[in-house]
Amino acid sequence: MELKADRLTKQYDNKIAVDRISLSLEKGVTGLLGANGAGKTTLMRMLSGLLTPTSGEISYDDMSVKSEDYRNVLGYLPQDFGYYPEFTGREFLMYFCALKGLDKKSAKARCAELFEIVGLEEAADKKIRKYSGGMKQRVGIAQAIINRPEVLILDEPTAGLDPKERVRFRDLIGELGKESVVLLSTHIVSDIEHVADRLIMMKDGQICWQGVWKESDGSLEEFYLKQYE
Amino acid sequence: MMKDRELKQLLQINTESPDYASKDAFIRRYKKETGSEKTGHIKLVMMQAGYIRKRIWIISLLIAATFYFPYVESEDKLFVIAGLMPFMAGLSILEVFRSEYHGVSELEAVTKFSAKGVFFARMTLISAFQLMLTAVISALIGINNPYGIAVSGSMLLIPWFITSIISLIVERSEFGRNNRYSFVAVAVCVTCIHTTLYSNGFFQSLDMRYLIFVAALLFALNVFEVRKTIETETLVWN
User: Fold this and answer.
1) What is the pLDDT of residues A68-85, one digit of tens each?
2) Is the minimum CB–CB distance between B46 and chain A shorter than 8 Å?
3) Which of A11, A40, A88, A223 has the most CB atoms around it within 10 Å of its CB?
4) How far apart are CA A190 and CA A211, in angstroms?
5) Which pLDDT value is given to residue B9?
6) A71: which chain B residues are within 8 Å (Cβ-Cβ)?
7) Residue of chain B with shortest Cα separation from A45
């Protein structure tokens, strides 16, 4: 299990959003920290195959990120995602189960399991447009793990969640990281501090620091802020 | 011999269900060993059929049913229905771009089928249905009219293709992305031009056989625009 990026660059007109980034992600949770505009979302969208890099290569084990095989093992939660307003939570998940290749019977069972995981059993048959921001985010996380992904890319997954829900999701992400390559982006240091095995910090489209943060290294928050001075 | 259901019940009684992580690991290992089933376009088209809103089918049928509207003179029927065809085309565009409007395309893009596949499946389904309706109306009109079936079909398809081409171009622009119902403006413009030309006797003065070539040309242009739309970055799988 290795997601590799080699000299990845994305340029929009005159702006270089991601500048020659090379990284290798293995099983476990990798936290991606960076201020707004640092290039986190662009990097994640390229790793998810949504954006074509201007230059550079991405591969997962022997798979090309262009392949259906990669999409079969990928779970992705974008920073902002939409939904069809007439769908209930269950219909939304059933739709994505079908798109991820699950037959109806397996999809029904999987949906029930996912609603339990994200704590939305009671609201499963309500229209998503009536959900609160946190509930919508939980459905988003549920759709990202429908196919039991080997690679899970989560862009700000805890945005909009209340403190209790955030703790719950940190635990869930930690569990998922035991068996998957998880890349978790946020600008909330405490979210990452508790769950990430490894950290990557981005600034101006480049990696400014990466490694394992130990408690003995001091306060991560202070170190993080120092990078942006 | 023990039936599957009995075996399942026995297993449920005598074994504990695994925890989430072990179950996940087992299913993933199993999937890796057996390999995942490759998916075809037909399966996706069938699946998407259930997700196309009923109003799209109903309005398309109502437009086609204008043929039976008793207050329209039989010689005017072809032009009246041709004038409504832009709205049929516009509706198909609205449905095809639904994922974009609602911000779901990014999620659809990371599934087995990709956003490009979903877009193409919806377009195939709605266009096939509307073209089938057009073929039926062309046959019904063409039998009793001096232009014949092919010319009648071309008369109906030309406004449909023009609306579809312009709407695809508009939808790819920033304006189209921010204005969900821009197709209405396109359809109204095409219908107005069509009605004005008809009222001024433009079509009647033409050698109608040329319309078949115009329709064929517009069909090719429409295919080109669909391809171009599919290749835009938001729909492309890397």
Assistant:
1) 888 889 999 998 888 998
2) no
3) A40
4) 17
5) 80
6) 110-112, 114, 237
7) B106
Report pLDDT for A175.
85
Is the model's pLDDT at A97 over the cut of 80?
yes
Helices (H), chain B: 4-14, 20-34, 41-49, 54-65, 77-96, 98-102, 105-109, 114-143, 148-172, 174-178, 182-199, 210-230
Which chain B residues contact residue A3 at CB under 8 A?
none
Q: Calculate the alpha carbon distances from A228 to A32, B77, B84 in Å.
A: 15, 70, 59
CB-nearest partner of A148 from B27, B38, B118: B27
User: In this structure, how many other beta carbons lie within 10 angstroms of the beta carbon of residue B178?
Assistant: 9
- How far is B119 from B32, CA to CA, in rounded Å? 29
Q: Look at A49 and B238 and tell me if their CB atoms are within 8 Å.
A: yes
Torsion of CA B203, B206, B207, B211, to 10 degrees: -50
Determine the distance in angstroms separating the CA of A227 from the nearest CA of chain B, rounded to an integer: 32
- In whole angstroms, what is the distance from residue A193 CA to residue B45 CA? 45
Q: Which two tokens stand for residue B120?
A: 């193409």
The predicted structure's pLDDT at residue A152? 94
A206 within 8 A of A19, measured Cβ to Cβ: yes
CA nearest A70 in B: which residue?
A: B112
Q: Which of B38, B54, B107 to mutate to test the interface with A (most CBs of A within 10 A)?
A: B107
Substitution target in B102, B111, B120, B177 with the highest count of A β-carbons within 10 Å is: B111
**Which of left, alpha, beta for A116 (phi over 0: left; psi -120 to 50: alpha)?**
alpha
Return the amino acid letter for B233: E
Q: What is the mean pLDDT of residues B188-208?
A: 84
d(CA B59, CA B6): 50
Contact A97, A146 (CB under 8 A): yes
